[in-house]
Amino acid sequence: MKTTNTIFALLLILFGFSAQAQELKVNTSESSIAWLAKKIGGQHEGFISLKSGSFEIKNDKIVSGSFIIDMHSITCTDISNEEYNGKLIGHLNSDDFFSVDKYPTAQFVVTSATKFNNGKAKITGKLTIKDKTEEISFDITQNGNAYTATIPVDRSKFDVCYGSNSFFDNLGDKAIEDIFTLNLNLKVN
Q1: Three-state secondary-structure class, residue 157
Q2: Phi-psi region of 98 (alpha: psi -120 to 50; beta: other; left: phi over 0)
Q3: Which of 89, 70, 90, 69 shows the shortest CA–CA distance to 78?
Q4: Residue 69: what are its φ and ψ, rounded to 5°?
Q5: Each residue of 100-115: pLDDT tens digit?
Q6: Which CATH number fits domain 21-187: 1.10.260.40, 1.10.1040.10, 3.10.50.30, 2.40.128.110?
Q7: DSSP letter assigned to residue 92
Q8: In the Cβ-directed half-sphere of 138, how many Cα atoms lie within 13 Å?
Q9: More exposed terminus of the chain, fewer Cβ within 10 Å: N or C?
């Protein structure tokens, strides 16, 4: 009888722990966010830093999470000329694009997610850029303590209108695509 009670108590403990949410903190120094923006006849790419981030997993499902992006950290990796690189970064930081002095951070908050199946899940959440919030969804892959995702973002929904056919007519070969991509590589502790 004592053995049965002990086994029963162990099972309760194990099931109790599995039902508890596990908070995972993002290691910002080992994580990266690469960006890619395309225009007619070319593209630009670089990185932007995650300021902070964490999420909770319960029963193999992300149940909550919040991530802050440091908009001042944007870099460009495809222009080697220091002067032109600086001009592009200055333009991206300006009111034509992200108004970084006024809006120094962007944020993503998880609102729902599917359960991980073979290391993959779908996440939905609220993305805020320039004080505009939109719901987005994307697939995420988990491999050990690493989480990766490719996230398409429609900049026109966040009033990032420079060179956008959504706001201006007759841009011709000066048009910049509305969709830019964030390639997320998160490492958690």
Answers
A1: helix
A2: alpha
A3: 89
A4: -105, 135
A5: 999 999 999 999 999 9
A6: 2.40.128.110
A7: H
A8: 22
A9: N
